[in-house]
Amino acid sequence: MTRGILLDIEGTTTPIRFVYDVLFPFARKHAHQHLGDNEQRALKHEYDADVANGLTPPPWSSGAIHYVHWLMDQDRKSTALKTLQGNIWQEGYRLGDLRGEVFADVPDALGRWHNAGVDIRIYSSGSILAQKLLFSTTPHGDLTRFLKGHFDTTTGPKTNPSSYTGIAATFGMPPSEILFISDVVRELDAASTAGLQVLLSVRPGNPPQPPHHYESVTEFGAVGISGLQSVVMAIEALEHIQLAMPAGQENLARSFYSDLLQIPEIPKPPQLSKRGGVWFESGPVKIHLGIDPDFRPAKKAHPGLLVRDLNALVLRLRAAGIDIVDAEPLPGFDHVYVADPFGNRIELMERQ
Q1: 236 — alpha (psi -120 to 50), left (phi > 0) or beta?
Q2: DSSP letter for each residue of 200-224
Q3: Which domains occur in the chain, in start order?
Q4: Per-residue pLDDT tens over the stretch 92-138
Q5: In degrees, to the nearest 5, what angle opens at C-alpha 262 toward C-alphas 261 and 266?
Q6: Rounded-to-10 torsion of CA 242, 248, 250, 256
Q7: Across-strand partners of 339?
Q8: What long-range pairs does 246-254 form, CB within 8 A, spacing at least 24?
Q9: Taking the model in full, what pTM does it have?
Q10: Are 348 and 310 within 8 A, CB to CB?
Q11: Could you give the 3-state DSSP secondary structure of residue 267?
């Protein structure tokens, strides 16, 4: 059951290039203008912790801006840095120098999920302020109307299962009813450990991920809500195959498909029967022949039919005057080719 959706931003709702080519350079360029006393105190607290942990940031005496650049160069998920960046971006959005960007499929998906009663929230290493600014200034309009909440590094690291346990508590629902979508496998590992459903976001420009067992999506249109159950849209099976035939030859089709291959004929739906043609079905095997006024037999494209006792079927076909064409070796199968009365190629296969 899915009643909540938790979304990452970078590489999930928003192209990575927007973050690295637009937002980060803008913050770096304007950082020195926003280093007030409060910002420097928060940064100094983290600086002291870095030194105590054996890291080697530039000397604080050289100026807080050098520590800020050091954090940026390492892409550190620093709360003080993310707060500073959020303030810088707020000024950029206010002045019109920045505008939020999301993938084209995101607005429709957010609207669809929202209309289905799903609780949608954001979890990003960027500050909550930065998140709201991005989603409120997109070319598609203000998307924050679809979002019920935001989480950032103040909630906890995105690679820590306890962060997701706390988020689920804020949602007010069991973790198993929340779907988390991110482009980072380590984040999915943590969320999955906490009991959330997870999907890997695979978007253009995303870095490769280590081996994993998670289902993936390339766009949000593939994530549907059927009732309260989230599903990844996928092709499940081949429902039937359609072959062409010339008009007025239904009895010839019956003699081959029904009499020789022993696939029973079934009635066509009334609205389709007037078009001619004939359908043959047996369990999962469904071959539909339809009339093509400009009929040409399929000499290359063909169905492969799995057979029990291929030798017996070959004898029956030969006795009926059907030519059998031996096929090149295929690992795991014995197989031959035949043509139906209209010249359509058919492959008959039996597992070895």
Answers
A1: alpha
A2: EE--TTPPP--S----EESSGGGEE
A3: 4-232 (3.40.50.1000), 241-351 (3.10.180.10)
A4: 999 999 999 999 999 999 999 999 899 999 999 888 998 999 999 99
A5: 115
A6: -90
A7: 345
A8: 246/291, 246/292, 246/295, 246/342, 247/276, 247/291, 247/293, 247/295, 248/276, 249/341, 249/342, 250/276, 250/277, 250/278, 250/289, 252/341, 252/342, 253/278, 253/289, 253/340, 253/341, 253/342, 254/278
A9: 0.61
A10: yes
A11: coil
Tell me the C-alpha distance between 66 and 75, whole Å.
14
- 248: tokens are 């007025």
C-alpha span between 239 and 284 (Å, rounded): 8
Instruction: List the structure tokens of 244.
Output: 């062409």
Residues 6+ apart with CB under 8 A from 97: 26
**Strand extents, DSSP E, the chain:** 4-7, 119-123, 149-151, 178-182, 197-201, 216-217, 223-226, 229-232, 241-245, 265-266, 278-282, 285-291, 304-306, 325-326, 333-339, 345-351
Phi, psi of 107 (to 5 degrees): -60, -45
In the structure encoding, which two tokens stand for residue 202, read together? 């695979």
In degrees to the nearest 10, what's the CA dihedral of 342, 345, 346, 348? 130
Asked if 332 and 352 count as a contact pair (C-beta separation under 8 A), the reply is yes
Tokens 């000499």 label which residue?
299
185 three-class SS: helix
**C-beta of residue 266 within 8 angstroms of C-beta of residue 255:** no
CA distance 279 to 287: 6
Q: What pLDDT is stored for residue 228 in this prediction?
A: 38
Arithmetic mean of pLDDT over the chain: 92
Contact 151, 127 (CB under 8 A): no
- pLDDT for res 234: 63
Tokens of 225: 């809500």
Q: 304: which residues sit within 8 A by CB, 6+ positions away?
A: 335, 347, 349
